[in-house]
Amino acid sequence: MHLKCKPNGVFTLHIILDDRGGLVHIASNRKTSDQLYRLSRLNTDHKLIQTLHWRKAESKPFTEGAGGWSPQATDRQPWMQLDLKDRMEVTAIATQGRYGSSDWVSGYLLLFSDTGRAWKQYREEDGVGRFVGNVNPNDVVHHKLSHSIRSRFLRFVPLDWNPSGWVGLRVEVYGCAYKSDVTDFDGRSSLLYRFNQKSMSTVKDVISLRFKSRQAEGVLLHGEGQRGDYITLELHRGRLALYLNLDDTRLRFSSGRVAVTLGSLLDDQHWHSVLIERFNKQVNFTVDSHTEHFRTKGEGVSLEVDYELSFGGIPLPGKPGTFLRKNFHGCIENLYYNGINVIDLAKRRKPQIYSGNVTFSCSEPQLVSTTFLSSSSSFLSLRATASSLGGFAVRFRFRTWNPDGLLLSTRLALEPQRLELQISNSRLRLTHHTSAQQKEEVSTGHRVNDGLWHSVSLSSRGLQVTMTLDNEPPSTIDLEDHMEAGDLYFGGCPSVNVAGCVNPTLAFQGCMRLISVNSQPIDLNLLRQGRLGNYRELQFNTCGIHDRCLPNFCEHAGQCSQSWSTFYCDCSGTGYNGATCHNSIYEVSCEAYRLAGSSSGYFSIDPDGSGPLGPTKVYCNMTEDKVWTVVTHNSTDPIRVQGSTLQKPYIMKFNYSASPEQLIALVAGSEQCQQEVTYSCRKSRLFNTRDGTPLSWWVDQAGERRTYWGGFLPGVQQCSCSLEENCIDMNYFCNCDADTDSWANDTGVLSYKEHLPVSEIVIGDTNRTFSEALYRIGPLRCYGDSRQNVDESTWNAASFYQESSYLHFPTLQTELSADLSFYFKTSAPSGVFLENLGLKDFIRLELSSPSVVTFSFDVGNGPVILAVKSHVPLNDRQWHYVRAERSVKEASLQVDQLPLRFLEAPSDGHLRLRLNSQLFVGGTAARQRGFLGCIRTLTINGVTVNLEERAKMTPGVSPGCPGHCSSSSSLCHNRGRCVEKNSGYVCDCSQSAYGGSSCTEEVSVSFDRESSVTYTFQEPFSVMQNRSSQASSWYRESSRARENMAFSFMTTQSPAMLLTVSTFSQQYIAVILARNGSLQIWYHLHVDRRPDVFSPRPSSLADGRLHRIRLHREGRYIYLQIDKDMNLKYSLTSEAELISIKSLALGKVTGLEAVSEDVMWAGSKGFIGCLSSVQFNRVAPLKAALLNHGSSLVSIRGQLVESNCGLLADSAILHSQSGKEGKEPLRNASQSNSAVIGGVVTTVVFITLCAVAVMTRFLYRHRQGRTDASVTEKEHRHNLETAYRRETAYQVRPVSDAIKEHFVVTN
């Protein structure tokens, strides 16, 4: 059936039926009534398929009769099928309800097939297979298919319908004729396309074809040349691999050929399209809708193939480089090589084509699959037929992604014996249960949940049961007596109790086919018709497996794995965490590390945050007034240069410890950058030539040649001495240009950051007698964070004064993932922070009420709303932090330190957030519900939005925010919160483990063997289960276990107990030093399981040095940082949360229940040394112990002495350097501390008296100012104490630790 395509690509089928299903009217835009009637004949189950269509021009139903399709109420799996009589290209579909009734379909699946037996579900580009149907019987709902269907049969499977009516459906199909030249390969055949000359050399190739395969292996295309070029397209493990070599001698003689792999599950017996486009070394490789762009290796740009190209296999090996593979078994259609229709030439028997045993029609195998849909309730039961040979034999094939599931269970004649065949931990396991307590097991295979088809057979013969998997050796279990099987349960057990059938863990979720019992194939059509066995939650004639890792939604090179219903991302080693490896675990700059309380050292920074660039390691120098970020390169030593000329210059290229993209991001995110160039010369000029041609130069980050030296303005051939007017010869602008026999120096600092760093240096005048140069390019040094500061004293902020005002920016590029964070302060009860709209999709963040922040969006699954409610009003004119994130896996919302709210995304919902309008900040496109107040530091996917620049040109908005807390980024540190006051500000350190006016002073305590601090929570608490009644039913809201802890310690004792957290349910966390001094972290989350124990490194930390530990747990994963040089990730065996936390203890612990011997031993030994800045979630136990004497929350045992771990560590280092080793420096901590403190106090008093004597007159004149300062200091002290006590009272509330420390630093 070939219809001529109209511009809209429409063929319409109109079939009108009366109330009894009788034919009233048939119409078509291209065919006769008789032909159309054949499209609507009885299906294989003899159910009348009644299709009713409407006039396209009027979009109204026909009025000549009533009708539509409705199944019988007893039909367990209703569907409506269309036979288009030939393969057509379908581009769109539309539906209506049944005419004149209350019957319609509100959601359905669309399946297609060439044969009417093996079906495949149609899915959109983002994997969605569900179509939205009708909401009444009359309106027409159109769906344009994102990729067309080329098929003969279509099947509509209703999922939901009018709850007050029944299923009712009329459909219309849009499309056009599809022309196809097809050939069939039987696994031994091939097509050879022979060239007119000996070899063919091309710089451009375009190869396209469509195929469907019956096997997971096979060569589709191969060609090679004598010089080593080759091209091979091969199906391997259900994926397509493209091998391509253009004159690369390394690959020519290499046994390991590098392939570009694309696609998945391509052995599903359905058509897949392939397109290979090559121009020189650039290649575009497309399989279905997925494209990979890559460049070939080697020096060549042309592909040289000798004699021929083979399709469908490699006929004969023997040529140099040829490797033998399995031939292709399946069909290929529309095969084009550089515009030549190869199959058409073969059909016309052209001489350049050799067709080896191929046919020009596609034979269709009778392989029918069945999908087990549910991991809890799917099953298929069959009666075991008697075998003439005795015993029983079962064979079938399966494919799945799940690592666990019951494949087969049967009760044996000798009760209570039974056999179970299951997938367990990705292996195939056969279990013979001889009694309730006894069993025998054998296992075979590895990763049988890889999505490929696996063949398994189970048979009993004599006194043995044999299991065989694929080509693996058989595994057997010996029996004591002959056995006969009872009923066979495939895939699972019924929900009603059946003797001898119990799901061991999960039911099977996957596909089965070719089931045979005692050598008798099982016709599943009989099962579907109720004439054989029983079943539940099955889908017949289709395998519904879907690769959720194609494309890979794990960001930053995260590894994707999957189950049947979802996918997972392994972020190990990436530097990122989160459901899709989106969030960087590192700070964006050295400035951010300083704000978090770190000191100088090597750190990993991520300049673009959650952006595409990865982290890089730099040195952060925090000893000066400015925080310098230092990036080194491969040539930091001085280098002497001789013998170079302008024609053959000396060239040195610099490779930095960061990639060029990372360097660009680092420089762009810094306020200022510089690089020192040390250059000494003797008879070696820089610019002194007659025509002005430079003799030496350097190359900037963009590859541009630069001829200015030593910090001078860009584009000027001068050096620093010219700017400073101290050149040794004032006739020249550089000292080296004086061309003297003595050494001269043109050292300077390059500080024009847009040109930095130096990527290459070229020196061209050292070839004369006694001519030489000596140079050194220093590391790149940058300071400041332009993401936070527009200038040195102002945050990137904007103030909104009118409800109708807003700032607009380009559309958010956040289809798959987005994270947004900012600070706000306001006195208004509500207002929209930001909004971006699409045709239907949207994303919005707003203050919906004085104490509620709402994050809402719609990606096509219906609106989703996340809300966080604060216990105090948020319109208190104080800064509050908001972070919202949305990915294809989940969405989350964080406000200040309130419990994180998150929702899991639906496994089969829409994924892409499609926006097309501008991003509105501080308001909406409708100019309603605008925000009144200040917003600062708006960051989207790691990029800070420049609010101030846009605010300068927008009415009703001004740049910056009034108030002290917005004027500096360094007022409060270490999670301290800046609180605005009428005449100043105060740092609220109640959320910090540090103290002091700026939350920078250590809170340290020296412990002896009997000392301990126990913080008792007033009431049991756990991480809050957040519920949102407004959330879309497509999303599942969950809680996720989280803990944050950080502390510093110094000791020489081992074993030692550092910290324990225990619950009322006998769970515990313990951080100890083992007997050898190594750090151990114990997590015991299940009473009936062994605890998880992690030992980060074997070296001892009981070395008398100060060590900093940071631990963050998120669900199953633990992120651990030790000091500054070790960042580790561990996986727990459970995601369980701590239920009803009882207490936190530091130092000696006795009376621990249900703990391991090592933990109990360390607890009895206590801790001797210094503990500092201890934080667990929002609890600071050391601070509570020092500031809340007599509080019922804190219990202190033994002697505690307030100390300073940092001073003690420095003292211990000096002590060890002076040769006084072997002592325990913390034994007499109180005495040493007293001496130190006494000396410090004496010095301070002396300096103070001198200052008072000198400045008495000045202070007298400013007595009022002194009085004000005194009042401010008293107010600060009062607020500090009351804030901490208030926070202590809040500890009964649920705690969440979803954010990293620096996120709570508000200024």
UniProtKB/TrEMBL annotation:
Domain Fibrinogen C-terminal: 581-633
Keyword Protein transport (UniProt): no
Listed Pfam families: F5_F8_type_C (PF00754), Laminin_G_2 (PF02210)
Keyword Metal-binding attached: no
Principal cellular location given in the protein's record: membrane
Laminin G domain residues: 182-362, 369-543, 796-961, 1020-1205
Classification via InterPro entries: ConA-like_dom_sf, EGF, FA58C, Fibrinogen-like_C, Fibrinogen_a/b/g_C_dom, Galactose-bd-like_sf, Laminin_G, Neurexin-related_CASP
Domain EGF-like: 545-582, 962-1000
Ranges that cross the membrane: 1235-1260
Membrane topology of the entry: Single-pass type I membrane protein
Keyword vocabulary terms for this entry: Disulfide bond, EGF-like domain, Membrane, Repeat, Signal, Transmembrane, Transmembrane helix
Coiled coil: none
Disulfide bonds: C934-C961
Localization annotation: Membrane
Annotated ranges, domain F5/8 type C: 69-176
Gene Ontology terms: cellular component: membrane
Homology family: Belongs to the neurexin family.
PANTHER family membership: CONTACTIN-ASSOCIATED PROTEIN-LIKE 5 ISOFORM X1, PIKACHURIN-LIKE PROTEIN
Protein's recorded name: Contactin associated protein-like 5a
Organism of this sequence: Esox lucius
